[in-house]
Q: What sequence folds into this?
């Protein structure tokens, strides 16, 4: 059973139920998530071993996070305990033209973001990992965390493992002049990565690769091969999202592997919970690569997984390969009884 | 006031609120339903006397079921108490491409399905019934229950009452070779029935009547008259359902009476709770026959009742004839204040 | 900071959560609202001082109402306490073809509707008001309340303030021969008003102005200038609503000012909570006039505010001018994080 | 099966869940109750036929009330529909030294309190009643309702039925000089009654019988025989309640029958929901009389029923005779499994 | 890290929230428990490896059970999937003199109780177990399950492991003549057991050992040494429970080890959730034995753990050794902040 | 109307409903509180003007806090907006021997604790304040906040206002050597204070005043006069709390004014929500001083207010003077209807 590990922060999600705002309501529902959580939980549900490498406080909040990760099926044996705080975000659901809102607490003071490098025995961790997942959100945190990411990725490569890097650039985390600040770190990670989640906008804005083209697909077809060649990347994949007038979203997935692009159909669907859909796509790409599925099959499944993720409550979308295939097959969807 | 009785099982419905799955949630909402429950409650709301003939355990669950039936307006004076268990099913709501799921507990051990024939005084019951409703789900249970159905239907016929039979074939209940197993029992029930709920697929798969036609309506027009003639059925009625791309459903109702077909308009509508819509259709057909409405009016109302049933929480859809007529009339639907 | 006050009743809204009916459920969610509440709260959120002039009982229900108004940002220093009761209404949500339902308790016995004229020191109140908001719902209550409205409006005019009157004719409140009964009172209020919320149907049915035209816009263009001239009204504004087949609504706003009509785009949108949308429109018109925005800008914002109000739980829709402008700008609406 | 009917108002109870106040909360739980409801539901649970005679509005609130009464097991065939409103009360739970609070809406405008005498066919009703239950709360409403009570009681007596009258004097309903106002009406009802719920305070304050004694038991022993003799009452019964320091309550029941007093043990118990306990006592007294139990057994059961009623959520306490006997028997009370 | 495994059924607990009954409510809260679950989860929280050996269906209910067990910290790698059903019980909370009630569904049809012996590779399981926990509830199920228990216990003993047996006799499961039926099976299990949970009543009623003594402690001191000697048991432990008048319970724990009795103080405490307290006692005894604590310390901790378990929602009480010690130390219990 | 202002932090309270822990639950209820919030809200409910001086972020969380403060009746016109974060704490309720737990997020990064001194115009604020309330929790935050406290207190004194200081020493906030660190700051504040909340333990541990006495009352009688004299304090007041075996608490209040001690009765009561009781005591002392009540009356009311505060959900206990007096009067506490 392949051992996948993700290095990243676990956050507490505090959501106002229904469509009230924080001003109107007095109730919250909480869960624990994060890109690494979403990816390792999804891969565990596909039948792999998925472990999270992170640091959580020795408090009732930290205990609740660990129990929640276990419930998701994540291997928590690589979790460190220490520090004082847990990153949090509050979520107010939008409706129609009223957008949803996310409000963060001070995540820079979290146990994960204040943990010393010495908190982790990188070589020992690397020996227990076949595939390491890293993400651009973690890269945006601080210099210490960036060092930890790079060192762990280096150790995993040395030990013969693979590195997956999801670019996941968030402008609000890098601030003004963010792209310039981020670029050298992204370049370092791309050098270490075997598989990358990105699209033409990441290539253009972060790396300065590819401009002036007429449509997104053409841009993609120019930029991604150049990125792959420059950084020695085996597989790149990503999605294009459109938000339609009737409140549905559309997604098209692409994968670039061994010099060839494959695209999924454009899937249109109603949206229940949009957060975590990108992680569902990435998880299915990793799963397809581990299973050595043909790239067309992988990107089809990944797009269907991302679509399904929009129909599930919470950031972390869990379903079996069979459920993804059924969503792909377009049978009618009457209640199953 | 005509006295309608249904013979059938009362089940406990345990539904996960909202869109979480059983893995994600920790809460359930429960109610009590069943085809017989839905039909007699609807007919009570239309102004008739609706009684359920069933057996419920002498436990707090059985007490809760009886109280719930009373709340629905059902006459519970024909309910037996005994046995040990109540059939149950768990319902997880679907969203968009993610289908809803129903998980049953072991209903074969329920009080209803283990009651001895001697549990019911069939002749005495028949003397209190003008119309008896039976359904294919009950027919699938076991040999004892089948005997009870047939004996009661026979007694009702002898006493001058009418029998309504809803084919309602559920493949999961009959298992492999189900159609062959079911056929003789369906034929026996159809011989006893005055009014039947079925469509061309029931005719073809269960009875082997009608094949090879080009479209469903043509198939229907060949099969149903043959069924009616062979079994001496006065009225047959049923629906065709389509599931549309935009998550709405469409329904068209038909009725076949005295050699003539009448069809409702095709109604399209969003869906809140799909379970029980067929029972709402059947109830309105029975009501129309009791009121001696023209068949076109009956099938229009029945289709509108089925449509309305999709907009109501729970299996059992209660509304007055006036509410059905208003839904038919297509007025704008701003809030009533 | 301009001081806006509304004279009107505060009602308790008791809503069945989700889509159950009062028969099915056992839970309610309550809040406090009313046209005056909605308008002054919205104007407070736009940065003005918004006060409600009303009477509430000295009971735990009255205390709860006052606390709720404070939470909405309303200035409660003009609220009288006395009488015994609070008007209430129960709300059952509709779904699709099943309309929502409102059931009132006996509001005529409420503290507001039974307060004596001497309950209010009209001259003192007028000295603290720059803009007074009145509404046709209040006008329908009883003769005492009508006297209070007229006297207060007169005092405000004498003190140099402005009067806004929202026609808001509700047939169920005036009963048979309602238009004839209402007409003299509406005429008196229109004489006192500087700004009026109405459309061509109000003009035709209440005032007998404008008939026989071919389409609503043409009717509007004939009737409103005549009303404005006859009653010396500076600004008239209102909306046309359509209910679309796919369960969305469409709104078009108009404003008539200094002899010119301006119209908003027709906005189409899904509906979460329809009640209070007209008050959101009126509030934005008042805000636009206070800010001396060009009429085209005012009506655009008012239509967007009415649209946004449909996406917010509860009667009272609170948002900043910035949020209204963003809804107007039609950017994509992915979650904000 | 003896047919018991109660004439009285059905009220909607709106309770803040938990220990929040109306100012703090935004949620309510509702049910429907009233003295007549509580008594007939309890007697139905003991195996009798219990019907309520009342008037409810033809609104969703009225429908909800009827469905709730049916769920309680009450025979609703004697309920009239008409009028506009339902009486309501809001309940905030107390805790420790903080008392619970009840706030009424305007119940005088309810369908029951505004129904004309002609609303009820008194002779026809009387022919379907073996025991009629009336209560002092109804007597406090208005002159029309009082007339209806007296006329119905007279008809029941003429038809050979029995009348039970629960004095249930509520000072807040009769206002200043209430005792003087109430006295003639109480005397009229006592003349008609066979069984009466009262204690020495009712005798003293309402009827002016019995004063100056040293302790409540002695007062009781002087006053009740005099009342019984003066008004020709067969059975009188009632309770003495004490509120203890440790937040428990104590109750002692008495019954006076054929010149003899019997007393229950003093029962002490914790309190979950205090409302409706007196009705549970009265119901068990009526049940004991119907079953012709010895008075000592009746008063023991009635006191145990009142105690149990304090442990049940809601006004209406339902339990079987077996459950009452078990509560009397003082077995240990570990969970039953 | 010692590896503890329990062989037993996982049940779904469906609890009515608050103090309503199943008749009154419409909501349930669910969790998953069982003696084996409670014991292995508690031991995992004390720092050991706790695994459950059971069979769960391949349904959404089975998935939910597995996820819940993982959340509790239980090692689920020994869980089989198969069969069709999950045992369930409904729980209604009692209040004061009104006892709580448990209603079971048909647990004999559960996946666990219908699994074939061949479902488990007993030798392989035994090689992964240091301590095996078995319980009298499982022994009551059916002959197949009893065979599985005995075979697994035999294999564990052969492999050098220890066996803990909790007598846990439930009269309702064994039926009439239950003690005679149960005795040979209990004797077989006691022969295999190293540590036993029992008290003098188990000895007397099941084994016929010890009668006629004057008080429970004296009985205990006669019966337990005889049981220990006859069956070669190293440690016996158990509790005496009293239910006090003020709704508190009292517990005294005992342990018998190497010919000596040690007793805990009698602890009195209020009760939030009584179910699972015996399992908390057993878990702490096993923990004390694994840690080789002096018997006095072990029984003190076990009694404190049982007391704490009464203050925790749900069957499964999780707390650290530190929390148990603090409950023992009787410090004041103001909120920790 | 006297103007009271408190300078202090507003925190978000996130409470697990019922008795579950953060590990077990998935729901929270939130409110906003803080010592300054509790005191000014209580004084507003007593009829004074109560304003909070604090800084809140310009986020949806900050908006929710301001709306909540308004609902409590607090004057929010002195609230600054700025910074990024809101201090938070999570609350898990205890039960019996299981203590409640509070877990803080990183409050040092809150808007209040990172606001610059220049954020507040101290002289302008002082001109609008008759009584300033400060508290030892704020004093523990950081040097900037301490400077702001002292400067504001100085300005208020200069402007002729009064200063109330609640010692409220929290060991966890000051860390090791906390008393030594805190002492100079406490001494500075005591010099500025007119009224002080403290008891003999504060005097001893913080100030080193009073040791070696035999009982707490004697210690108090030695220490408080010395403190009052040394720092020129007009009134000192405080409470002694005991936690009783039966889960009730007892409180005795004292006040020292013009050289005389007055004590309340010792009040014993059950506890619903313990947090904020000290603030209820302080609020009533301030109210008593503002009303110039005799010290005995003030301390009686303050003790009763503290007792009542334990019976109210949430940190902030609101009740009128009449409700406090009724709690003092020890009438029986049957439900008010």
A:
């Amino acid at each position: 059973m392949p051992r996948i590990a993700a290095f990243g922060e676990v956050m507490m999600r505090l959501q106002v139920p229904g469509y009230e705002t924080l001003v109107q309501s007095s109730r919250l529902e909480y869960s624990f998530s994060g890109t690494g959580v979403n990816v390792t939980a999804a891969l565990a549900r596909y039948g792999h071993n998925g472990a999270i490498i992170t640091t959580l406080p020795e408090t009732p909040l930290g205990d609740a996070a660990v129990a929640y990760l276990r419930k998701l099926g994540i291997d928590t044996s690589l979790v460190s305990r220490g520090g004082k705080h847990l990153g949090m975000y509050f979520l107010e659901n939008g409706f129609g033209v009223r957008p949803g809102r996310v409000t963060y607490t001070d995540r820079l003071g979290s146990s994960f973001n204040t943990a010393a490098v010495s908190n982790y025995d990188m070589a020992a961790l690397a020996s227990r990992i076949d595939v390491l997942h890293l993400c651009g959100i973690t890269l945006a945190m601080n210099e210490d965390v960036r060092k930890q990411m790079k060192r762990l990725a280096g150790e995993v490569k040395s030990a013969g493992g693979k590195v997956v890097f999801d670019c996941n650039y968030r402008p609000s985390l890098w601030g003004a002049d963010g792209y310039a600040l981020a670029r050298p770190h992204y370049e370092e990670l791309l050098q270490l990565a075997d598989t990358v989640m990105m699209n033409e906008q990441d290539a253009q804005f972060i790396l300065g690769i590819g401009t002036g083209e007429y449509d997104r697909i053409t841009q993609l077809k120019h930029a991604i091969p150049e990125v792959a060649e420059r950084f020695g990347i085996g597989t790149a994949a990503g999605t294009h999202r459109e938000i339609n007038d009737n409140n549905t979203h559309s997604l098209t997935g692409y994968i670039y592997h061994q010099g060839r692009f494959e695209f999924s159909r454009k899937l249109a669907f109603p949206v229940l919970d949009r957060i975590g859909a990108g992680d569902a796509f990435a998880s299915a790409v990793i799963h397809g690569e581990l299973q050595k599925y043909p790239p067309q099959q992988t990107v089809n499944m990944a797009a269907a997984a991302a679509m399904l993720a929009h129909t599930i409550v919470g950031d972390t979308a869990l379903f079996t390969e069979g459920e993804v295939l059924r969503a792909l097959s377009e049978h009618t969807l009457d209640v199953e009884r």
Notes: The first strand of chain C starts at residue 3 and ends at 7. Chain C touches chain F through six residues (CB under 8 Å).
